[in-house]
Amino acid sequence: MASTKVPQTHTTAAFFLQSAIAFGVGLVTACVGIAYLPIDPWQRAFLAISLLFLTTSTFTLAKVVRDKQDEDTVRVRIDEARIDRLMAEHDPFSSVA
Fold first, then answer.
1. What span, in angstroms and rounded, lies between the C-alpha atoms of 57 and 50?
2. What is the 8-class DSSP label of residue 1?
3. Domain-by-domain residue ranges, the chain?
4. What Pfam families is this protein classified in (predicted)?
5. What's the first-to-final CA gap in the chain, in angstroms?
6. DSSP secondary structure string, 59-71?
7. Whether the Cβ atoms of residue 66 and residue 17 lie closer than 8 Å to each other
8. With left for phi above 0 and alpha for psi between -120 and 50, is residue 30 left, alpha or beta?
């Protein structure tokens, strides 16, 4: 009986790099805005948008780091092995009468 491999979703290096770059760009933008711009309404809007971008990038980076850690844990590898074994042993035609 042939064993079927369960497709796994992995975080690509490009997505990880893009997330880290987005976090860095957001952080630098907020710091430059806070340090150099006088506080007028349009500059406050700039700071608000920069902080929003930084926050969303932080959540993305945190998700990427968490997913990478989950992929490397023993628990995940054991669960994948169990699923592979169950799928290899399953015969969909055995219960059909």
1. 11
2. -
3. 18-88
4. YiaAB
5. 21
6. HHHHHHHHHHHHH
7. no
8. alpha
